[in-house]
Request: fold
Amino acid sequence: MKRVLFGLVVLVGLAAVPRTAFAGCASDLMDCYGRAAKEDNFWIRTAMGINCELDYADCIRLILIGL
Reply:
């Protein structure tokens, strides 16, 4: 049981190491936040921010899973 737990901790640690592909997702996220911040309407700005988060999650999913 301890070996399995140790193996999982090692895998999580390796997965947590930043990869260069994540840099593209992060810069896209910051650009998206910048566009959202320029909106005057609170609700539109909030919706755009949520959309930025969803796009970021999709970008990361594509990198990790590749589907």
Notes: The chain has a mean pLDDT of 82. The chain has one domain: 19-67.
